[in-house]
Amino acid sequence: xxxxxxxxxxxxxxLLALASGTAMAQDNTAGGEPEFAYAIDAAGxxxxxxxxPDGTTFSHCGIGRQYQNGITLLFTRTRREETNxxxxxxxxxxxxxxxxxxVRVQVDETAWDETYPAVPAGATALAIPLGQAGGLIExxxxxxxxxxxTPLVAFEFALSGTFNAxxxxxxxxxxxxxxxxxxxxxxxxxxxxxxxQGMTRDSLSSLLSAAGLDEVxxxxxxxxxxxxLGLQYAWxxxxxxxxxxxxxxxxxxxxxxxFMERFIGQIEERCSGEFGARITDSVVLQDRYAIAxxxxxCAGAEDTSYMASTFVLDDNFYSAFFHEGPLENVDMARGAxxxxxxxxxxxxxPPEGGQSTPSGPGPGDGEADGDLSGGGTTFDDxxxxxxxxxxxxxxxxxxxxxxxxxxxxxxxxxxx
Length: 416
What we know:
By secondary structure, the protein is an alpha+beta fold. The chain contains 6 helices and 18 strands. It has helices at 15-20, 134-142, 162-179, 201-210, 256-269, 330-347, and strands at residues 39-42, 45-51, 58-66, 72-77, 83-88, 101-107, 112-120, 125-131, 145-149, 154-158, 217-220, 233-237, 240-248, 274-279, 283-285, 289-299, 304-313, 317-326. Strands 1-2-3-4-5-8-7-6-9-10 form a 10-stranded antiparallel beta sheet. Strand 3 (58-66) and strand 4 (72-77) form a beta hairpin.
């Protein structure tokens, strides 16, 4: 299958952890000494090394400042050179039902103009994964203003102090790499897959129909051209392409997390361009089933591709349902994968008659039998057209940015 290019995203650092405020290493109150401490105070931006919730393990380096519009702007960087941009504001009113959406990031209007996925990360945080972002960082250092345009509101930020502050993130990470043990190599995604019979075409057709996806044309594996993902089926849905990859649940060494990493890794191998995406934490049902969602985006040289995926673990298979297409069809792709997730979540409702599900292997184990059933939790997917409840007032239309940088309501202190 030859689709638009997608490039790997990295989600090593939890965006929720970044947004909710992991502890500064030098201000650790969780007990124990942090394994690495580093402080940054440059041109109105403050930060340094941050730890994970245990208060000792290094997480990332970050800097931030608060603007007059009440929004705190954060830049974070990990040892794997992944950069995230985070907006914090008490004006935001987001929850677990707030869908991911795309934002347009511009520097000086024309110096940089790209679209990225945005991830609601708590009620008051919006995180934007930027990937390695080398080109953008250089523009942020030399630029005078950055705008972030969401579906509802546009934010403007003066880039005062970024020329001196952003390199300090690199210095912080370089110091961490020198002080800490080398990062482990990513676990190989290669696994030995036994022969198996996956979902039947009739079962897939019934599932798609239950999800309201009636106008699809299903193509079996043997008829998929240039299939580099090992798909069981593919289908077309208007301008987007859908597909299903499955592996047996009893595959040795396979877990839900590794299955998702393996799928993302396969996407990476055929991709190029600036990448951004999110993977939600797996929802475990009855200690043996799981479901997770992923959104992947790649801005290529000429176009941008978007993929929405639903990962499922049932009694028999690890499954990845996905829909991919041009960025302008993001709502269609997200809606199709969300509809499949909604059907599967309904299937994972309470067992008939209220009887408990027999105990058995968990989502990382093998060997289970019976039909998909769950723990009685009902999940309602937001519609594809939902937009986040961002503040309609302050920070909109470019009126509230801290134009002078250092004279704003900067809780991070004055710069050097």
